[in-house]
Amino acid sequence: MKSIFEKFLFSLTVLLGVYIILFILFQVLSINSAQSMIGQSSNKATEEAIAKEFHLDQPPMVRLLISLNEISPLSCFTEDETAVFYWDSTLYNGIKLFSINKGSFYLKYPYLGKSFQNQEHVTTLIAQRFLSTLVLAFCAIIFATIIGVLLGILAAVKKNTRIDQACLAISAMGISAPSFFVAILIALLFGYYLSEWTGLSFKGSLIEMDDYGNSIYVWKNLILPVAALGLRPIAILTQITRNSMLDVLGEDYIRTAIAKGLSPRVVFFKHALLNALNPVITSVSGWFGSLLAGAYFIEVIFDYKGLGNLTVNALMKFDIPLVMGASMYIAFTFVLISFLVDFLYLMIDPRMRK
Known about the structure:
Distance between the termini: 13 Å
Low-confidence stretches: none
Number of strands: 7
Radius of gyration: 25 Å
CATH topology of the domain at 122-353: MetI-like fold
CATH superfamily of the domain at 122-353: MetI-like
Mean pLDDT: 78
C-alpha cells in the first residue's frame, strides 16, 4: 500500500508537471489571446468580453492558478462563486466538503474549459472522439501483441535457423520504416488501387453517419489504420519476446525442470513463457499509451475522426483549451496504464509479491 500511495503521488506530480509545461509553452508562443480566437476583423469591445470570459485579461500566474483550480477534482471557491461544472455538456453541482474562512472546497469533475473556436465544452468535443481513438489503439496493440509475441516465440524456438533470420529481418524492416510512410503506402495500395478487390477505402472513421443522420459503426474502416499503426510495435515486440525467451531458457531452473523429466511443453509454457512476459508487458503498456498519443499522423492520413485528428485541427486553429485538454487526456491515460501494469506484474510474477 505504501508503494501504491507513493506512485499515486508521483502520478499526480506528473500530471501537474505536464499541465504547467503546456501552459508555459503556449505563453511563450504568445498565441493564447482573444485576437487568435476571433481573427483580425474584431472590435475592442468584443475582444475585451472574450478576454474576460476566458480569463485572458488576468496576469499569466493568476490565469495558471485559475486553470489549475478548474482542472483539479478538489477546488476552492469563494462565497461569491458558483461551484457548477460541465462534464460532456452536462451540468453538475460540486459536492461541498468543508469551508475555511470565506473559501469553500468542492469535489467535482475536472473542468477543461471551452473551445476558442465554437464555444463548446472541451470535454464534450473530446468525448465525441476519444472512443474512436481508444478502439483504434486497442485493436492495434492487440494485433501487434499477438503477431509480435508469436513471431518472437517462433524465432526463439528456431534459434539460428532460417526462420529465426526471417523473423529478425521482418522485425528490422518494421523498425526502420516510419509509420506515416507505411500508412501512405497501405492507404494507396489497399485503399485506392486495390479498393475494388479489398472493399476498403483509404479514408473513413469508426463512427459514420448514414443517409438518415444516424450514427453507425463501420468496423472495416479500422483495418487499414490498425495495420499501419501496429507495424512498428510488431517489430519491437518480436525482438523483445525473442531475447527474453532466450534469456529465460538459459536459466538454471529451466535446466532443472528439464532434468526432472518435465515435458518440453510444460517447461516452455509454464516455466519459461510466463517468466519471459515481464518485459513484454512493459513494452505493450508503453506502446498502448504511445499509440493513443501517437495516432495523429495515422488519423490525419486516413481521415479517421479521432482524438489525434481533432487535436491537429485544433492546433492549426490555435484552439489552446482543446489542445491542452486532449494532451491531459493522453497524460491521464499513460498514468492509468502504468497503474494497471503494476497490478498485472503482481499477478503474473510471484517474485513481485515478496
